[in-house]
Give the backbone structure.
Amino acid sequence: LLRLPLGILRRWWLWLPLAAIGAVLGFLGGMKAFSVSATVSVRLMSRSPQTFAVSTSSYVPSRVQGATLLGAMGSPQVAREVAEKMGGELTAREIQSMITIEEIRKTDFVDIVVTTPFDAKKTAEIATLWAREALAFTSKLQAEESGEMKRYLEEQLARTDRELEAVNQKIVAMREESG
């Protein structure tokens, strides 16, 4: 009975491949159990402080409302811009799956939460890029709205000018008739 274990122990070199396989499996299992990940949160104000001040201009773009803001900040367009700025390291879909956007109720704040399998530095880079691109996208939406309003007001002004010109012609004609 004791001879079998002693015989196996005498051939210790046979145990080396088994030990190496066990070490590799243990290492890989440990990597999976202790993988690196990070979460970064960015809080943005949904309107700029300048909208609180009295404006001297006649038109101020309307504030982007909560649902619109959330939709814009989580849009695929923002994800594509972030993916492009990262040099194609990640796809827009991968980046978008790492992002959670939450409106803080009864406040003017929006949280962008980024959770990645990367280290904190890379996660912060993604969060910063997302916040910048989301702000740029909402600014673009407001600029488009302002452009549409400008076109509308220009059309209204042109129509009012035509009507005023017609009224002026009638007044001139009436003066000539009366006198």
Summary: The helical segments are 3-10, 15-33, 66-73, 76-85, 92-97, 120-178. The longest helix spans residues 120-178. The chain is about 60% helix and 10% strand. The beta strands are 38-45, 99-103, 109-116.
